[in-house]
User: Which sequence fits this backbone?
């Protein structure tokens, strides 16, 4: 057998076994529950910018970007800009003309300055404003209209209504075979008495509930459970949505 094909089959068998191992899946969630209060995701950066993410999800994103080779990645939620820089650097390595479009209702000046002065800034564009507004959506549509291979990442306000609106506005821009990735769906899996502080989201009101609501009336996407199974530790379980038609 072709050794490359054999390795791929062995890897898939491992992933299938992980997906059927409830104890390991529970352990992965327990790790998230224990580390989240310690702001574990704040410990990592990419090329100098805080990325505020779990490494497992970033590796998954790298695999998807390499597979899809998008000419446009749309991301809602910028924060420190780490993920913008990460995605842009991957597009640079791929060597295409692709770039990343970041949307945020409040791009803080110190973050904006550091993103715009970064070595990879040539592949980054930012728009400040409410991602759920018609005005911002129309600007995105104008930028996306001539792109052939688009990926969408939703990682801003995590309430059900906000994420559902973003899905309605931007998911359709995802090209067939590409992904709309909804982050922080893990909120639904956290303990019901979890202290979210001043946050308005929680169990029953979060990105995962929005994903499930969206999929009730949209058959163009399906959840890629294979990604969940291989990661085990992820802030986006059930959030890797592949466009299939």
Assistant:
């Amino acid at each position: 057998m072709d050794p490359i094909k054999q390795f791929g089959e062995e890897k898939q068998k491992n992933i299938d076994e992980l997906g059927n191992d409830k104890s390991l899946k529970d352990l992965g969630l327990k790790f998230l529950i224990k580390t989240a209060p310690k702001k574990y995701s704040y410990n990592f950066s990419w090329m100098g910018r805080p990325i505020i993410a779990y490494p497992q999800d970033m590796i998954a994103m790298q695999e998807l970007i390499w597979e899809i080779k998008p000419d446009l990645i749309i991301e809602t939620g910028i924060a420190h800009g780490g993920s913008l820089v990460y995605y842009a650097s991957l597009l640079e390595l791929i060597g295409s003309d692709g770039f990343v479009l970041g949307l945020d209702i409040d791009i803080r000046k110190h973050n904006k300055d550091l993103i715009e002065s970064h070595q990879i800034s040539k592949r980054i564009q930012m728009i400040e404003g409410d991602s759920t507004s018609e005005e911002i959506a129309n600007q995105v549509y104008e930028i996306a209209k001539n792109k052939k291979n688009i990926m969408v990442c939703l990682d801003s306000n995590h309430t059900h209504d906000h994420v559902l609106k973003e899905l309605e506005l931007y998911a359709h821009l995802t090209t067939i075979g590409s992904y709309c990735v909804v982050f922080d769906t893990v909120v639904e899996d956290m303990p019901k008495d979890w202290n979210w502080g001043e946050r308005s989201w929680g169990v029953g009101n979060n990105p995962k509930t929005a994903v499930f609501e969206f999929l009730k009336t949209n058959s163009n996407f399906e959840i890629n459970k294979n990604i969940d199974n291989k990661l085990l530790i992820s802030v986006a379980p059930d959030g890797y949505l592949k466009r299939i038609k």
